Amino acid sequence: MKSLQLYKEVEIFVEEIPARESDPHKHSFFELIYVLEGSGYHIINQNSYNFSKGDVFLLTPDDSHTFKVETPTKFCVIDFTKTFFSKDQRNEGDKADVSDFFMRLEYIFHNHHTLKGSIIKPGERTLFKTLISQLMKETSHARPFANIIQQNIVFLLLHFIARTIQSTLTQSASEGGTKSIVHAVTSYIQQNIYDPESIRLDTIAAHFNKTGDHLSRYFKQQTGSSLKTYITRYKVDLIKTRLKFSDLTISEIAHELHFTDESHLNKTFKKLTGMTAKEFKKANKNEQIKKKLQELPQAH
């Protein structure tokens, strides 16, 4: 399966697909897709969803997808990397530094598949249409402040998506049941993973009106894992994401996720993955190089 690369921090374009099936592929970046017109099926990680005009889909790095188009379709596609959310200090650009915002919303990229199919609520379709229309105008015409306007529109779109995901998770938890309660706890941890005080056992327990002992026993009984282990595993997942899709040093990642130091991070990472963070980063880099070589045209 082809793996696509993005060599700019953001790329916004319109793509038209006739009535046929597109080639399946993966991305090493994030992709927001807005359906301008047309209908068919969107297959994401082998799950098939109907799509029609006004639908919105979010793809995260390494998601695989393809389209089975039934009527000629036109998409507005927004591809972006994490660097889109950071101001390059070497550049006198007019974008704001919002890397903290990206960290706060990162949990949506780990939960977006909880929404089956389009990730937009019916009542927000008109607003999305207006924002996408303005985004396309800013992209097609070089005008003052275009960069920051584009960035802010993408931020707004992601905020609405985050709110939709969060409200869906909250609704699921309020409906009761073992699975939904556990999901609410894990969602809370993901949203607060950068705040050590918020993910203390007593703080989590208080948030859910339970004692620490009761919550610990309940969580382990239902998942087979302790809360501490879940938190550690989720942190390791975030470390993997940063090693694969950012230029942060291991020391910077350790500081960001509140490990004592780089050595502490490596010890934790190796315990769960069998390799150090440096070894994982090198292995991933070699794999990316291998993929790029495979995609090069072959000499005859």
**Biggest pleated sheet:** 7 strands, mixed
Give the proportion of residues in helices: 40-55%
Strand content: 15-25%
The H-and-E topology, N to C, reads as EEEEEEEHHHHHHHHHH
Based on the structure, what is the oligomeric state of the protein chains?
single chain
Which consecutive residue ranges, at least 5 long each, have pLDDT under 50?
none
Question: How many β-strands, per DSSP?
Answer: 7
Task: Give the number of helices.
Answer: 10
The value of Rg in angstroms is 21 Å
Mean pLDDT: 83
Cα distance, first to last residue? 22 Å
What is the overall silhouette?
Answer: globular
Structural class designation? alpha+beta
Describe the structure.
This protein has 300 residues and is an alpha+beta fold. 47% of the residues lie in helices and 19% in strands. It has helices at residues 99-105, 125-140, 146-174, 178-191, 201-207, 212-223, 227-245, 250-256, 262-273, 277-295; strands spanning 2-4, 10-17, 25-27, 30-44, 47-52, 56-59, 64-80. Strands 1, 2, 3, 4, 5, 6 and 7 form a 7-stranded mixed sheet that branches. β4 and β5 (47-52) form a beta hairpin. The longest helix has 29 residues, at 146-174. The protein is globular and about 55 Å long. It starts with a strand and ends in a 5-residue tail after the last helix.
